[in-house]
Amino acid sequence: MTQSTHFEQLLTLAGQEPQPQRLLFVFLKAVLPDESSADKLESYKSAQGGQLKPIMTVDKELSELTTFDALVEESKGTGKEWQIVLIAALAGSNGVAPTSKEAEEGIETILKVVQGGGNLSPFMALDRDGDPINFN
User: Is residue 49 classed as helix, strand or coil in its secondary structure?
Assistant: First the structure.
């Protein structure tokens, strides 16, 4: 028996919600800020530091999603390298899924949190292998 992934569990839970869901994705890469200290450079080289930079975003209805591997494969078509994806669910209302405009607004909110160095713990965060990342 195969164990379901965190991403597939999210898809299952989102599908059980009373209102249609749209998932918001913000793909991130750790970068070394200009004028970093030697300590910060060492942390960055050991994959323990750096600043998270948004690389690309996308929103999708649940019907457009299958597996995390499929999402990773699709992202490869962009030619953009990423290390972490933040995922948030956006609920519709009255049985109607959120619009693209509402999804754009949700993604903008996530981008502001990332760019402002805010708390990322409300979002599901996965690495390229689909393993969860904890931002505590």
Answer: coil
The DSSP code for 135 is -
Query: What are the extents of the domains in the chain?
Result: 6-127
Give tens-digit pLDDT for 44-95: 455 555 789 999 999 999 999 999 999 999 999 999 999 999 999 999 999 9
Residue whose pair of structure tokens reads 């949190």 in the numeric block: 113
* Cβ-based neighbours of 18, under 8 Å, separated by 6 or more: none
Q: How far apart are CA 26 and CA 107, in angstroms?
A: 7
Record the pTM: 0.86
Spatial distance between the Cα atoms of 116 and 22, rounded to a whole number of angstroms: 24
Of the candidates 85, 93, 78, which has an alpha carbon nearest to the alpha carbon of residue 128?
85
Structure tokens at 87: 């995922």
